[in-house]
Amino acid sequence: MRDGATSGALLDWYDIHARDMPWRVSPADRAAGVRPDPYRVWLSEVMLQQTTVAAVRDYFARFTALWPTVGDLAAAEDGRVMAEWAGLGYYARARNLLKCARAVVRDHGGVFPDTREALMSLPGIGPYTASAISAIAFDRAETVVDGNVERVMARLHDVHTPLPAAKPELTALAALHTPEARPGDYAQAVMDLGATICTPRSPACGICPWRDPCAARAEGTAPELPKKTPKKQKPVRHGVVFIGRSRDGAWLMERRPESGLLGGTLGWPGTAWVAVSEEVPEAIPPAEAEWRLLPAEALHTFTHFHLRLSIMVAEGLPASGGETASATLRPGAQGWVPRGDFRPSDMPTVMRKAFDLARSAMDNDA
DNA sequence: CAAGCGTGGGT
DNA sequence: TACCCAAGCTT
Predict the structure, then answer these.
(1) How does residue A287 score in pLDDT terms, banded at 50, 70 and 90?
(2) How far apart are the C-alpha atoms of A323 and A334, rounded to whole Å?
(3) What band does A2 get if pLDDT is binned at 50, 70 and 90?
(4) Distance from residue A92 (CA) to nucleotide B1 (C1'), in Å?
(5) What confidence tens digit (pLDDT) does each residue in A58-106 have?
(6) Which domains are delineated in chain A?
(7) Residue nearest to nucleotide B8 (CA to C1')
(8) ∠ Cα A139 A145 A147 (to 5°)
(9) Catalytic positions of A, please?
C-alpha cells in the first residue's frame, strides 16, 4: 500500500527547500536526468552515520579530493585513511570504509552494486545505509529509516511506544509512505524534514508540509515524541599516557590494535583505562627517561564513559631503533614519528587533547 | 540483542 | 553544568 498524498506534499516542499550539500544532486538537476555518483553517496552516508552534516562537510571535501574514486580509496594506505578520519569518531567506520572499497574493487569490478541486498553484504553498510544508497544513487523504492524518519513517523502517527522497541512499527509505517516515484528525493526529503522542521525539540509544526495529516500535532503530543527508554549514566575511568620527544624532535607514538575503542588510530603509549574505584595499573614507561607528571589532566567523554587522563612528559630522549612514518606504523606497534611527519590532526580528539596539554608544558620550559 | 563504539554542538 | 542529540553498524 502506498500513500501518494503525503509523499506528494513532502516532495513539493523538498523541491523548494532541499538543503544544498556537496554530495547531493538538487531536485531540479535530478529531474533533468542527473544521477549522483554512488561512490560519493556511499562515502557521505557512512560519514553521516550518527554524525551531523556540519561535522561531515570538510571531511567529505578532503576525502574526495584525495581519493576521487572508489578505486583510489581502495588503493590508499590504511594509516593515511585513519589519519584523514581522525576527529570524526566511530573509527570502525573508517576501517570498514577501506574494507568496503576493496571489496567493491575486488568483487564488483570497482562498480557499486545497485540492490539493497548486495549493498547490505558489504562491510559497514547496514539496513539504513543500504536503503539510502539504493534509493538515492539508483532510484530504487527502498524505505530509508534513520533517526529522523523514526521521529517523523512517531509524530505523524502519534506512536507512544518507546524506542528502540518501536523501531519495527515505525519502519512499517515508513514503508507505507515510500513512493514509487522519486524515491531518492523522497528519502532525502523526509530526513531534511526531520532535520529542519520536525526537530527533536520545538518542532515547527506551523510550517510543516505534513501539518494536516499529523496525528501528534492534532493531539498536541509532537514535542514529547518519540518516547525513549532512559539511558544509564556514564561511569568515570582513569589512565595515564606518556608523551615523549627525542633530541631530534621525533615523537614516541603507537597505533592501537585494530579492534575495540579507537581501534587502528594513532596515539600515545599508556596504561589501560580503568574505573576510578580500581587501582590504575602500574604505569610502565615506554622508554627510559625522567618522566614528569603534568598538573593537568585531559578530560574526555566517550559514548559510554568519562575519561580522566593523566599525562607524563619527557624530552631529549634517544630515538633508539630509528624513526618511522606514522602512516606505516602497524596496529599494536610503537615507533618514533619524525617531527616533519607529525600532525596532531592525525590523532583522535582525546589524544590531541593530551598533546595540547603536553605541548603547553613543553613550550613553557623553552 | 544489548552493549560497545566518538565527537561537537545545542540547550 | 550536564545532559541530549546526530543520515547506525557490529558482535
Answers:
(1) confident
(2) 10
(3) low
(4) 20
(5) 999 999 999 999 999 999 999 999 999 999 999 999 999 999 999 999 9
(6) 4-224 (1.10.340.30), 236-365 (3.90.79.10)
(7) A55
(8) 135
(9) 45
The yes-or-no verdict on residue A366 having pLDDT over 50 is no
Residue A92, CB, less than 7 Å from strand B?
A: yes
**Nearest residue to B7 (CA, C1')?**
A89
* C4 C1' closest Cα residue: A200
User: In sequence order, what DSSP letters do the residues of A39-74 get, joined into one string?
Assistant: HHHHHHHHHTTTS-HHHHHHHHHHHHHH--SHHHHH
Does the CB of A303 sit below 7 A from strand B? yes
pLDDT tens across A150-184, in order?
Answer: 999 999 999 999 999 999 999 999 999 999 999 99
Covered bases, chain B (protein CB within 7 Å): 2-9, 11
Q: Which residue has the cell 522519486?
A: A182
Question: Is residue A28 within a helix (H) or strand (E), and if so which, with residue range?
Answer: helix A27-31
* Positions of strand C less than 7 angstroms from a protein CB: 3-10
